[in-house]
Amino acid sequence: MMSGEAIQPKPWLTTVLTLYPEMFPGPLGIALAERARERSIWSLDCVNIRQYAHDKHHSIDDEPYGGGPGMVMRPDVLAAAIDSSIAAGAHRPIIYLTPRGTPLTQSRVREIASGEGVTLICGRFEGVDERVLTSRDIEQLSIGDYVLSGGEIAALAVIDACVRLLPGVVGAAESLHEESFEQGLLEYPHYTRPRSFEGKDVPAVLLSGNHERIRSWRRAQAEKITRERRADLWVDAGAECANQRAK
Ligand code: ADE
Questions:
Q1: Which ligand 1 atom sits nearest the alpha carbon of residue 145?
Q2: 154 and 201, same structural domain?
Q3: Is residue 197 part of a domain?
Q4: Residue 128 beta carbon below 6 angstroms from any ligand 1 atom
């Protein structure tokens, strides 16, 4: 390397194990995420789980022991796919996307984004054989209390949430500090031109030029919205707000 040449950090490496590789990069192939991928800030390796099927029918699923509806993904096939991903980057969390998982939070997104990358397993059918989940160090995450037809859309959501936090992806880094969940609160409302829209005026405080008043109005709005919409978040955030005020 020439002296003075900048060292290019390794891209944040995502491996997606899926039966539908054609669903990727999907929406990650446009705008912010695509520009970041072109600049090698992150990379995407999409692996078709089917290529690890080894019997003559290339089967990847089978009927559930004990009976019941649907099919279950075979542990041997999925384990082979996971092991090849571990070989490609051992220090990355392996995440199985499932509505049975722990709810994904912005703080877990921050942790994942600060590492070397991630391996995401997308299930289909009724689910995957439980033994493969316990025989490897696999975290189970849900992106919300509803059921998708597979993990692919959830994987896209996880990658999108992480990629925008990687250094150099979002231009104005301060916009990341003010957004929802950063201080345990939902974000305050935004306004732009025109000053009057369908008889509704922009709140006068935002036109005042008084930055301290604007800051405290936004803070009060964020607290109100969090209290009204997300009682679960407000349990912690409200206590923290009361602490701040007491100082
Ligand atoms: N797969 C199906 N539904 C899901 C959800 N809500 N979260 C994560 N993965 C899923």
A1: 6
A2: no
A3: yes
A4: no
Percent of the chain topping pLDDT 90: 83
Q: Which amino acid is at 200?
A: K
Give 185-226 pLDDT, tens digit per residue.
999 999 999 999 999 999 999 999 999 999 999 999 999 999
184 and 96 together in one domain: no
pTM for this predicted structure: 0.93
Cα angle vertex 35, ends 3, 43, to 5°?
Answer: 75
Which residue range(s) make up the domain with 179?
Answer: 174-246
Q: Is 80 helix (H, G, I), strand (E, B) or coil?
A: helix
Provide the total of helices (H) and of strands (E) in the chain, helices listed first.
8, 10
Per DSSP, the three-state class of 215 is: helix
User: Where residue 134 sits, what CATH number does that domain have?
Assistant: 3.40.1280.10
Give, for ligand 1, the residue of 17, 96, 98 to mutate: max count of ligand atoms closer than 8 Å to Cβ.
Answer: 98
Does residue 23 share a domain with residue 135?
A: yes
Ligand 1 within 6 A of CB of 98: yes
Q: Which of 147, 152, 158 has most ligand 1 atoms within 8 Å of its beta carbon, as the pocket-test mutant?
A: 147
Ligand 1 centroid, distance to 180 Cα (angstroms): 22
